[in-house]
Amino acid sequence: MAALDRVENIAVTRAGAVRGTREGGVTVWRGVPYAGQPIGPRRFRAPAPPDPWDGVRDATRHGPLPPQGKTFVGRGRDDPKHRDEACLTLTVWSPDAGRRDAGLPVMVWIPGGAFVFGAGQFQLYNGSRLAANGNVVVVNVTYRIGVFGGFELESLGDGFDDNLCLRDQLAALAWVRDNIAAFGGDPERVTVFGESAGATSVLALLASPAAAGLFGRAIAQSPALPLIAGREARAEQARRFLTDLGVRPGELKEMPQRELRRAAGRQQLRSVETSPTLAYGLTFGTDLLPLHPIEAARAGAVARLPLIVGTNSHEASMFGWSRPPMLPTTAPLIDAFFARVAPEARERVLSAYPSYPRRPALVAFGSDAMFGAPSRAFADAYSGCASTFVYRFDHVTSTLRALGLGATHGSEIVHVHHSYGSYLGRKLHPLGRHVQPAVGRRMQRTWLEFAAHGSAPGDWPGYDVPRRATRVIGTTRDVTVDDPDRVRREAWEGLC
User: Which one from 94, 155, 196, 201 is the annotated catalytic residue?
Assistant: First the structure.
Protein backbone atom coordinates (compact mmCIF):
# COMPACT_ATOMS: atom_id res chain seq x y z
CA MET A 1 0.00 0.00 0.00
CA ALA A 2 2.89 2.39 0.66
CA ALA A 3 3.68 2.66 -3.07
CA LEU A 4 0.07 3.59 -3.81
CA ASP A 5 0.46 6.74 -1.68
CA ARG A 6 2.48 8.25 -4.51
CA VAL A 7 0.07 7.32 -7.34
CA GLU A 8 -1.91 10.26 -8.72
CA ASN A 9 -5.55 10.42 -7.51
CA ILE A 10 -5.12 7.46 -5.13
CA ALA A 11 -5.40 7.84 -1.36
CA VAL A 12 -4.92 5.01 1.11
CA THR A 13 -7.40 4.88 3.99
CA ARG A 14 -7.37 2.45 6.91
CA ALA A 15 -10.03 0.37 5.12
CA GLY A 16 -8.29 0.37 1.73
CA ALA A 17 -7.15 2.47 -1.20
CA VAL A 18 -9.51 4.70 -3.21
CA ARG A 19 -9.03 6.21 -6.65
CA GLY A 20 -10.56 9.62 -7.35
CA THR A 21 -10.48 11.92 -10.33
CA ARG A 22 -9.17 15.39 -11.14
CA GLU A 23 -11.85 18.04 -11.72
CA GLY A 24 -11.64 21.82 -11.75
CA GLY A 25 -8.15 21.99 -10.35
CA VAL A 26 -8.83 19.69 -7.38
CA THR A 27 -9.01 15.96 -6.85
CA VAL A 28 -12.36 14.54 -5.80
CA TRP A 29 -13.22 11.16 -4.31
CA ARG A 30 -16.89 10.19 -4.23
CA GLY A 31 -18.77 7.41 -2.52
CA VAL A 32 -16.06 6.74 0.08
CA PRO A 33 -17.54 4.60 2.88
CA TYR A 34 -16.86 5.92 6.37
CA ALA A 35 -18.81 3.17 8.16
CA GLY A 36 -20.29 -0.25 7.61
CA GLN A 37 -23.53 0.11 5.69
CA PRO A 38 -26.64 0.05 7.96
CA ILE A 39 -28.56 -2.69 6.19
CA GLY A 40 -30.03 -6.00 7.34
CA PRO A 41 -29.39 -6.50 11.07
CA ARG A 42 -27.52 -3.16 11.16
CA ARG A 43 -30.71 -1.21 10.42
CA PHE A 44 -31.49 1.16 13.35
CA ARG A 45 -28.08 0.44 14.92
CA ALA A 46 -25.12 2.72 15.56
CA PRO A 47 -22.68 2.74 12.64
CA ALA A 48 -19.98 0.07 12.64
CA PRO A 49 -16.44 0.57 11.28
CA PRO A 50 -16.20 0.42 7.49
CA ASP A 51 -15.69 -3.02 5.98
CA PRO A 52 -12.16 -3.25 4.50
CA TRP A 53 -11.53 -4.08 0.86
CA ASP A 54 -8.66 -5.34 -1.26
CA GLY A 55 -7.12 -3.54 -4.19
CA VAL A 56 -8.06 -0.02 -5.25
CA ARG A 57 -11.70 0.98 -4.89
CA ASP A 58 -13.21 3.21 -7.58
CA ALA A 59 -14.27 6.51 -5.99
CA THR A 60 -15.29 8.46 -9.08
CA ARG A 61 -19.06 8.04 -8.66
CA HIS A 62 -21.43 9.05 -5.91
CA GLY A 63 -22.81 6.60 -3.39
CA PRO A 64 -26.60 6.35 -2.98
CA LEU A 65 -28.68 9.08 -1.41
CA PRO A 66 -30.49 8.16 1.80
CA PRO A 67 -34.12 7.14 1.16
CA GLN A 68 -36.19 10.33 0.84
CA GLY A 69 -38.79 12.05 -1.28
CA LYS A 70 -38.10 14.53 -4.05
CA THR A 71 -36.64 17.90 -3.09
CA PHE A 72 -35.96 21.05 -5.08
CA VAL A 73 -32.38 21.10 -3.78
CA GLY A 74 -31.58 17.94 -5.75
CA ARG A 75 -33.59 18.60 -8.91
CA GLY A 76 -30.61 19.30 -11.17
CA ARG A 77 -29.71 16.93 -13.99
CA ASP A 78 -26.28 16.43 -12.45
CA ASP A 79 -27.66 15.64 -8.99
CA PRO A 80 -27.63 11.92 -8.12
CA LYS A 81 -31.01 10.23 -7.93
CA HIS A 82 -30.36 6.66 -6.72
CA ARG A 83 -31.53 6.07 -3.14
CA ASP A 84 -30.66 3.25 -0.78
CA GLU A 85 -30.21 2.55 2.92
CA ALA A 86 -26.54 1.75 2.20
CA CYS A 87 -25.79 5.46 2.16
CA LEU A 88 -22.97 6.08 4.67
CA THR A 89 -20.45 7.60 2.31
CA LEU A 90 -18.68 10.90 1.93
CA THR A 91 -17.11 13.05 -0.76
CA VAL A 92 -13.64 14.57 -0.44
CA TRP A 93 -12.17 17.46 -2.45
CA SER A 94 -8.47 18.21 -2.07
CA PRO A 95 -6.24 20.71 -3.89
CA ASP A 96 -3.05 18.98 -2.76
CA ALA A 97 -3.73 15.27 -2.44
CA GLY A 98 -0.30 14.31 -3.73
CA ARG A 99 1.37 15.32 -0.47
CA ARG A 100 0.44 13.40 2.63
CA ASP A 101 2.19 16.05 4.70
CA ALA A 102 0.37 19.01 3.15
CA GLY A 103 -1.40 19.68 6.45
CA LEU A 104 -4.24 21.70 4.94
CA PRO A 105 -7.22 22.91 6.97
CA VAL A 106 -10.24 20.62 6.73
CA MET A 107 -13.89 21.68 6.41
CA VAL A 108 -16.50 19.00 7.07
CA TRP A 109 -19.96 19.88 5.70
CA ILE A 110 -23.12 18.47 7.32
CA PRO A 111 -26.08 19.10 4.98
CA GLY A 112 -29.54 20.05 6.17
CA GLY A 113 -33.06 19.03 5.26
CA ALA A 114 -35.04 18.84 8.55
CA PHE A 115 -33.58 15.37 9.17
CA VAL A 116 -35.86 13.98 6.46
CA PHE A 117 -34.31 15.33 3.23
CA GLY A 118 -30.79 16.01 2.04
CA ALA A 119 -27.42 14.48 1.17
CA GLY A 120 -23.84 15.61 0.81
CA GLN A 121 -23.83 14.64 -2.87
CA PHE A 122 -26.14 17.43 -4.06
CA GLN A 123 -24.45 19.95 -6.34
CA LEU A 124 -25.63 22.84 -4.20
CA TYR A 125 -23.05 21.61 -1.69
CA ASN A 126 -20.26 21.00 -4.21
CA GLY A 127 -17.03 21.69 -2.34
CA SER A 128 -14.67 22.11 -5.30
CA ARG A 129 -14.62 25.93 -5.23
CA LEU A 130 -14.10 26.04 -1.48
CA ALA A 131 -11.19 23.63 -1.81
CA ALA A 132 -9.60 25.43 -4.75
CA ASN A 133 -10.16 29.01 -3.57
CA GLY A 134 -9.16 28.42 0.03
CA ASN A 135 -6.53 25.69 -0.28
CA VAL A 136 -8.52 23.51 2.13
CA VAL A 137 -9.73 19.92 2.09
CA VAL A 138 -13.53 19.73 2.00
CA VAL A 139 -15.46 16.67 3.18
CA ASN A 140 -19.21 16.34 2.58
CA VAL A 141 -21.01 13.85 4.81
CA THR A 142 -24.10 11.87 3.90
CA TYR A 143 -25.91 10.44 6.91
CA ARG A 144 -29.12 8.57 7.64
CA ILE A 145 -32.29 10.66 7.68
CA GLY A 146 -36.02 10.08 7.91
CA VAL A 147 -37.26 6.97 9.60
CA PHE A 148 -33.83 5.31 9.31
CA GLY A 149 -31.83 8.05 11.04
CA GLY A 150 -33.86 11.09 12.05
CA PHE A 151 -36.73 9.28 13.76
CA GLU A 152 -36.03 8.17 17.33
CA LEU A 153 -36.73 4.49 18.12
CA GLU A 154 -34.20 3.83 20.90
CA SER A 155 -36.96 3.34 23.46
CA LEU A 156 -38.08 0.16 21.66
CA GLY A 157 -35.22 -1.73 23.32
CA ASP A 158 -32.32 -3.89 22.17
CA GLY A 159 -31.40 -3.46 18.54
CA PHE A 160 -32.30 0.25 18.44
CA ASP A 161 -29.74 2.99 19.13
CA ASP A 162 -30.47 6.66 19.75
CA ASN A 163 -29.65 9.67 17.59
CA LEU A 164 -28.54 7.66 14.57
CA CYS A 165 -27.97 10.69 12.36
CA LEU A 166 -25.73 12.23 15.02
CA ARG A 167 -23.91 8.92 15.46
CA ASP A 168 -23.31 8.80 11.71
CA GLN A 169 -21.83 12.30 11.80
CA LEU A 170 -19.56 11.30 14.69
CA ALA A 171 -18.42 8.25 12.71
CA ALA A 172 -17.64 10.51 9.74
CA LEU A 173 -15.63 12.86 11.96
CA ALA A 174 -13.72 9.89 13.40
CA TRP A 175 -13.00 8.80 9.81
CA VAL A 176 -11.65 12.29 9.10
CA ARG A 177 -9.41 12.11 12.16
CA ASP A 178 -8.01 8.74 11.10
CA ASN A 179 -7.74 9.20 7.34
CA ILE A 180 -7.74 12.82 6.19
CA ALA A 181 -3.93 13.11 6.18
CA ALA A 182 -3.94 10.74 3.18
CA PHE A 183 -5.92 13.40 1.30
CA GLY A 184 -3.64 16.28 2.28
CA GLY A 185 -5.63 17.41 5.32
CA ASP A 186 -4.59 18.17 8.89
CA PRO A 187 -6.69 16.21 11.43
CA GLU A 188 -5.78 18.83 14.04
CA ARG A 189 -7.40 21.65 12.03
CA VAL A 190 -10.95 20.47 11.38
CA THR A 191 -13.92 22.84 11.08
CA VAL A 192 -17.38 21.31 11.11
CA PHE A 193 -20.03 23.42 9.37
CA GLY A 194 -23.62 22.91 8.32
CA GLU A 195 -26.95 24.52 7.56
CA SER A 196 -30.46 24.00 9.00
CA ALA A 197 -30.58 20.42 10.33
CA GLY A 198 -26.86 20.31 9.62
CA ALA A 199 -26.33 23.42 11.77
CA THR A 200 -28.59 21.92 14.44
CA SER A 201 -26.28 18.92 14.38
CA VAL A 202 -23.22 21.17 14.69
CA LEU A 203 -24.56 22.69 17.91
CA ALA A 204 -25.52 19.23 19.17
CA LEU A 205 -21.97 18.05 18.49
CA LEU A 206 -20.69 20.92 20.62
CA ALA A 207 -22.90 19.56 23.43
CA SER A 208 -22.02 15.88 22.93
CA PRO A 209 -19.22 14.40 25.07
CA ALA A 210 -18.61 11.85 22.30
CA ALA A 211 -17.43 14.60 19.93
CA ALA A 212 -14.52 15.71 22.11
CA GLY A 213 -11.34 16.11 20.08
CA LEU A 214 -12.94 15.43 16.69
CA PHE A 215 -13.01 19.06 15.50
CA GLY A 216 -11.65 22.41 16.59
CA ARG A 217 -13.99 25.01 15.05
CA ALA A 218 -17.68 25.17 14.20
CA ILE A 219 -20.01 27.11 11.91
CA ALA A 220 -23.80 26.85 12.27
CA GLN A 221 -25.88 28.41 9.48
CA SER A 222 -29.56 28.75 10.44
CA PRO A 223 -29.82 26.07 13.14
CA ALA A 224 -33.34 24.83 13.94
CA LEU A 225 -32.92 23.96 17.62
CA PRO A 226 -36.61 23.11 18.25
CA LEU A 227 -35.94 19.95 16.20
CA ILE A 228 -34.20 18.58 19.30
CA ALA A 229 -36.71 17.00 21.71
CA GLY A 230 -36.56 15.18 25.02
CA ARG A 231 -36.33 11.43 25.37
CA GLU A 232 -39.81 11.03 26.87
CA ALA A 233 -41.50 12.83 23.98
CA ARG A 234 -39.60 10.70 21.49
CA ALA A 235 -40.52 7.49 23.34
CA GLU A 236 -44.21 8.35 23.12
CA GLN A 237 -43.78 9.00 19.42
CA ALA A 238 -42.10 5.61 18.94
CA ARG A 239 -44.96 3.92 20.78
CA ARG A 240 -47.52 5.52 18.46
CA PHE A 241 -45.42 4.57 15.44
CA LEU A 242 -45.35 0.92 16.50
CA THR A 243 -49.08 0.89 17.26
CA ASP A 244 -49.84 2.44 13.89
CA LEU A 245 -47.91 -0.31 12.11
CA GLY A 246 -49.31 -3.07 14.33
CA VAL A 247 -46.00 -4.91 14.60
CA ARG A 248 -43.45 -5.89 17.22
CA PRO A 249 -40.14 -3.97 17.43
CA GLY A 250 -38.06 -6.76 15.94
CA GLU A 251 -40.23 -6.84 12.82
CA LEU A 252 -39.16 -3.29 11.91
CA LYS A 253 -35.76 -4.65 10.88
CA GLU A 254 -37.23 -6.49 7.92
CA MET A 255 -40.16 -4.30 6.88
CA PRO A 256 -40.09 -2.63 3.45
CA GLN A 257 -38.73 0.90 3.31
CA ARG A 258 -41.94 2.35 1.94
CA GLU A 259 -44.14 1.13 4.78
CA LEU A 260 -41.78 2.50 7.39
CA ARG A 261 -41.39 5.84 5.67
CA ARG A 262 -45.14 6.26 5.26
CA ALA A 263 -45.81 5.45 8.91
CA ALA A 264 -43.15 7.92 10.06
CA GLY A 265 -44.64 10.51 7.69
CA ARG A 266 -48.00 10.11 9.41
CA GLN A 267 -46.30 10.80 12.73
CA GLN A 268 -44.74 13.89 11.19
CA LEU A 269 -48.16 15.21 10.22
CA ARG A 270 -49.47 14.52 13.72
CA SER A 271 -46.51 16.39 15.18
CA VAL A 272 -48.14 19.63 14.03
CA GLU A 273 -49.68 19.50 17.49
CA THR A 274 -46.22 19.98 19.02
CA SER A 275 -44.75 22.33 16.37
CA PRO A 276 -42.06 23.59 16.12
CA THR A 277 -40.82 20.35 17.75
CA LEU A 278 -41.47 17.78 15.03
CA ALA A 279 -41.35 14.00 14.65
CA TYR A 280 -37.97 14.02 12.94
CA GLY A 281 -34.94 15.34 14.79
CA LEU A 282 -32.43 14.73 17.54
CA THR A 283 -33.03 13.54 21.10
CA PHE A 284 -31.53 14.87 24.31
CA GLY A 285 -31.52 13.11 27.66
CA THR A 286 -29.26 10.34 26.36
CA ASP A 287 -25.61 9.49 27.01
CA LEU A 288 -24.77 10.80 23.53
CA LEU A 289 -26.60 14.11 24.04
CA PRO A 290 -27.25 14.61 27.77
CA LEU A 291 -28.72 18.14 27.51
CA HIS A 292 -30.43 20.29 24.93
CA PRO A 293 -27.66 22.45 23.40
CA ILE A 294 -29.09 25.67 24.84
CA GLU A 295 -29.18 24.19 28.35
CA ALA A 296 -25.74 22.66 27.83
CA ALA A 297 -24.34 26.09 26.90
CA ARG A 298 -26.00 27.69 29.92
CA ALA A 299 -24.44 25.02 32.14
CA GLY A 300 -21.04 25.34 30.47
CA ALA A 301 -21.29 21.69 29.41
CA VAL A 302 -20.10 22.30 25.85
CA ALA A 303 -16.89 22.06 23.90
CA ARG A 304 -15.23 25.46 24.19
CA LEU A 305 -14.40 26.01 20.55
CA PRO A 306 -14.59 29.07 18.26
CA LEU A 307 -18.05 29.34 16.70
CA ILE A 308 -19.77 31.28 13.92
CA VAL A 309 -23.56 31.10 14.20
CA GLY A 310 -26.28 33.05 12.42
CA THR A 311 -29.61 33.15 10.66
CA ASN A 312 -31.16 34.76 7.60
CA SER A 313 -33.45 37.76 7.91
CA HIS A 314 -36.47 36.05 6.31
CA GLU A 315 -35.94 32.39 7.25
CA ALA A 316 -39.59 31.33 7.19
CA SER A 317 -40.68 33.11 4.01
CA MET A 318 -40.13 29.99 1.93
CA PHE A 319 -42.28 27.98 4.35
CA GLY A 320 -44.89 30.73 4.71
CA TRP A 321 -45.24 30.72 0.92
CA SER A 322 -46.43 27.11 0.88
CA ARG A 323 -47.91 27.30 4.41
CA PRO A 324 -46.85 23.87 5.63
CA PRO A 325 -48.55 22.98 8.91
CA MET A 326 -45.21 22.22 10.61
CA LEU A 327 -44.18 25.85 11.07
CA PRO A 328 -46.30 28.56 12.78
CA THR A 329 -46.66 31.02 9.90
CA THR A 330 -50.45 31.44 9.98
CA ALA A 331 -52.60 33.06 12.66
CA PRO A 332 -54.35 29.77 13.63
CA LEU A 333 -51.02 27.95 13.95
CA ILE A 334 -49.56 30.80 15.98
CA ASP A 335 -52.59 30.76 18.30
CA ALA A 336 -52.18 27.00 18.71
CA PHE A 337 -48.47 27.48 19.39
CA PHE A 338 -49.13 29.87 22.28
CA ALA A 339 -51.97 27.78 23.69
CA ARG A 340 -49.59 24.86 23.90
CA VAL A 341 -46.32 26.54 24.87
CA ALA A 342 -46.99 29.74 26.82
CA PRO A 343 -50.52 31.25 26.77
CA GLU A 344 -49.47 34.04 29.10
CA ALA A 345 -46.72 35.19 26.70
CA ARG A 346 -48.92 35.67 23.65
CA GLU A 347 -49.57 39.40 23.90
CA ARG A 348 -46.01 40.18 24.95
CA VAL A 349 -44.44 38.29 22.06
CA LEU A 350 -46.88 39.45 19.39
CA SER A 351 -46.30 43.07 20.39
CA ALA A 352 -42.86 42.66 18.80
CA TYR A 353 -44.58 42.19 15.42
CA PRO A 354 -46.64 45.38 14.98
CA SER A 355 -48.17 44.39 11.64
CA TYR A 356 -49.54 41.07 12.96
CA PRO A 357 -51.46 39.27 11.44
CA ARG A 358 -50.24 40.58 8.07
CA ARG A 359 -47.87 38.33 6.11
CA PRO A 360 -44.57 40.05 7.03
CA ALA A 361 -45.34 39.56 10.73
CA LEU A 362 -46.38 35.94 10.20
CA VAL A 363 -43.11 35.22 8.40
CA ALA A 364 -41.10 37.03 11.08
CA PHE A 365 -42.83 35.07 13.84
CA GLY A 366 -42.24 31.72 12.15
CA SER A 367 -38.61 32.71 11.54
CA ASP A 368 -38.10 33.45 15.22
CA ALA A 369 -40.01 30.42 16.51
CA MET A 370 -37.90 27.90 14.61
CA PHE A 371 -34.61 29.71 13.96
CA GLY A 372 -34.02 33.20 15.33
CA ALA A 373 -35.06 33.07 18.97
CA PRO A 374 -33.39 29.72 19.80
CA SER A 375 -30.21 30.73 17.95
CA ARG A 376 -30.00 34.01 19.84
CA ALA A 377 -30.54 32.17 23.14
CA PHE A 378 -27.75 29.74 22.27
CA ALA A 379 -25.37 32.54 21.25
CA ASP A 380 -26.06 34.41 24.49
CA ALA A 381 -25.15 31.32 26.51
CA TYR A 382 -22.29 29.96 24.39
CA SER A 383 -20.53 33.32 24.16
CA GLY A 384 -19.84 33.00 27.88
CA CYS A 385 -17.93 29.77 27.16
CA ALA A 386 -15.95 30.40 23.97
CA SER A 387 -15.25 32.86 21.14
CA THR A 388 -18.51 33.43 19.30
CA PHE A 389 -19.24 35.37 16.13
CA VAL A 390 -22.86 36.04 15.18
CA TYR A 391 -24.18 37.12 11.78
CA ARG A 392 -27.47 37.94 10.13
CA PHE A 393 -27.66 37.31 6.38
CA ASP A 394 -29.68 40.07 4.66
CA HIS A 395 -28.64 39.77 1.01
CA VAL A 396 -31.60 39.28 -1.34
CA THR A 397 -31.15 38.15 -4.94
CA SER A 398 -33.28 39.62 -7.71
CA THR A 399 -35.04 36.27 -8.04
CA LEU A 400 -35.97 36.12 -4.36
CA ARG A 401 -37.00 39.77 -4.40
CA ALA A 402 -39.33 39.14 -7.34
CA LEU A 403 -40.87 36.21 -5.45
CA GLY A 404 -41.29 38.30 -2.32
CA LEU A 405 -39.18 35.88 -0.26
CA GLY A 406 -36.34 38.09 0.93
CA ALA A 407 -33.27 36.42 2.46
CA THR A 408 -35.03 33.11 2.91
CA HIS A 409 -33.87 29.88 4.50
CA GLY A 410 -30.84 28.38 2.81
CA SER A 411 -30.25 31.29 0.43
CA GLU A 412 -26.74 31.85 1.83
CA ILE A 413 -25.45 28.36 0.97
CA VAL A 414 -24.65 29.13 -2.65
CA HIS A 415 -22.44 32.03 -1.53
CA VAL A 416 -20.44 29.94 0.92
CA HIS A 417 -19.83 27.11 -1.55
CA HIS A 418 -19.82 29.22 -4.74
CA SER A 419 -22.12 26.57 -6.20
CA TYR A 420 -23.63 29.01 -8.68
CA GLY A 421 -23.71 26.32 -11.35
CA SER A 422 -26.00 24.04 -9.35
CA TYR A 423 -29.73 23.83 -10.07
CA LEU A 424 -30.64 26.14 -7.21
CA GLY A 425 -27.59 28.35 -7.79
CA ARG A 426 -28.70 29.02 -11.37
CA LYS A 427 -32.18 29.93 -10.16
CA LEU A 428 -30.91 32.30 -7.48
CA HIS A 429 -28.03 33.84 -9.44
CA PRO A 430 -28.37 33.27 -13.20
CA LEU A 431 -25.09 35.11 -13.85
CA GLY A 432 -23.23 33.77 -10.82
CA ARG A 433 -21.19 31.27 -12.84
CA HIS A 434 -19.69 34.12 -14.85
CA VAL A 435 -19.65 37.02 -12.36
CA GLN A 436 -19.51 35.94 -8.75
CA PRO A 437 -21.55 38.26 -6.51
CA ALA A 438 -19.51 40.40 -4.11
CA VAL A 439 -21.44 38.98 -1.16
CA GLY A 440 -20.28 35.49 -2.13
CA ARG A 441 -16.64 36.52 -2.39
CA ARG A 442 -16.78 38.16 1.04
CA MET A 443 -18.68 35.35 2.71
CA GLN A 444 -16.54 32.52 1.37
CA ARG A 445 -13.36 34.40 2.24
CA THR A 446 -14.60 34.87 5.82
CA TRP A 447 -15.55 31.20 6.24
CA LEU A 448 -12.16 30.12 4.86
CA GLU A 449 -10.26 32.48 7.13
CA PHE A 450 -12.15 31.12 10.13
CA ALA A 451 -11.37 27.53 9.09
CA ALA A 452 -7.69 28.33 8.72
CA HIS A 453 -7.18 30.42 11.85
CA GLY A 454 -10.22 30.00 14.12
CA SER A 455 -10.98 33.71 14.07
CA ALA A 456 -13.14 36.12 12.09
CA PRO A 457 -11.81 39.14 10.17
CA GLY A 458 -10.53 41.94 12.35
CA ASP A 459 -13.54 44.17 11.70
CA TRP A 460 -16.00 41.50 12.95
CA PRO A 461 -16.05 41.79 16.75
CA GLY A 462 -16.82 38.85 18.95
CA TYR A 463 -20.32 38.44 20.35
CA ASP A 464 -20.97 38.94 24.03
CA VAL A 465 -23.73 40.01 26.38
CA PRO A 466 -24.96 42.71 26.68
CA ARG A 467 -23.47 44.26 23.49
CA ARG A 468 -24.44 41.41 21.14
CA ALA A 469 -22.39 42.70 18.19
CA THR A 470 -23.77 41.11 15.01
CA ARG A 471 -22.33 41.01 11.50
CA VAL A 472 -25.12 42.03 9.10
CA ILE A 473 -24.19 40.59 5.71
CA GLY A 474 -25.58 42.78 2.95
CA THR A 475 -25.41 42.87 -0.81
CA THR A 476 -22.52 45.33 -1.22
CA ARG A 477 -20.95 45.42 2.25
CA ASP A 478 -21.11 43.98 5.74
CA VAL A 479 -21.68 46.12 8.82
CA THR A 480 -21.60 45.49 12.56
CA VAL A 481 -24.80 46.30 14.42
CA ASP A 482 -25.26 45.86 18.14
CA ASP A 483 -28.29 43.74 19.04
CA PRO A 484 -30.06 44.35 15.71
CA ASP A 485 -33.20 42.38 16.66
CA ARG A 486 -33.42 43.60 20.25
CA VAL A 487 -37.20 44.03 20.38
CA ARG A 488 -37.88 40.54 19.08
CA ARG A 489 -35.10 39.02 21.19
CA GLU A 490 -36.49 40.54 24.38
CA ALA A 491 -40.02 39.41 23.50
CA TRP A 492 -38.86 35.77 23.33
CA GLU A 493 -36.77 35.77 26.50
CA GLY A 494 -37.69 32.89 28.77
CA LEU A 495 -39.31 30.88 25.97
CA CYS A 496 -36.13 29.21 24.65
Answer: 196
